[in-house]
Amino acid sequence: MRSTSVEGVSQVFVSFVLEKNADVAASEVRNKVDLIVNDLPETAEVPIVQKLDTDATPVLRIAVSAPRSLAEVTDIADKQIKRLIESIDGVGNVQIVGGRLREVEVLGRSRQDARL
């Protein structure tokens, strides 16, 4: 087992012996994670358990930083850098790890409030 963490995201990698069925292992890990979900902080997103094909490990990792807000850097990484790399022939997947997504809060009135 090994883990990496940066602001806003943590990844935990669990390796099994070759004889272990990957589907069974993923199911077992998913069941254990489900047991502790309620103990996570309210702001934590629901953990994602997924099988990893070791033949599909990244061949390139890029760290992006700039003298801007984290939200702006994340937006640039998503809308410019990620999209350019995804368009390259032979690229299977581009994933942004970390960053801060933009949120918009919409406040409204219910029909009942509008009548008052």
Layout of helices and strands:
Layout: E1 2-6, E2 9-13, H1 22-36, H2 70-86, H3 111-115
Antiparallel strand pairs: 1-2
Explained architecture:
The protein is α+β, with helices and mostly antiparallel strands and 116 residues long. The longest helix has 17 residues. The N and C termini lie far apart (59 Å). It has three helices and two strands, in the order ββααα. A hairpin with a 2-residue loop joins strand 1 and strand 2. Strands 1-2 form a two-stranded antiparallel ribbon. It is 32% helix and 9% strand.
Question: Descriptors for this entry?
Answer:
116 residues, alpha+beta, two-stranded antiparallel ribbon
Helix content: 25-40%
Mean of pLDDT: 83
Q: What is the number of helical segments per DSSP (H or I, 4+ residues)?
A: 3
Number of strands: 2
Q: Spans with pLDDT under 50 lasting ≥5 residues? A: none
Q: How much strand?
A: 5-15%
State the strand order across the main sheet. 1-2
What is the makeup of the main sheet? 2 strands, antiparallel
Q: Which structural category fits the helices and strands? A: alpha+beta
Compute the CA-based radius of gyration.
Answer: 20 Å
Distance between the termini: 59 Å
Order of helices and strands: EEHHH
Task: Note the overall shape.
Answer: extended
Describe what is shown at a glance:
This protein has 116 residues and is α+β, with helices and mostly antiparallel strands. The chain is 32% helix and 9% strand.
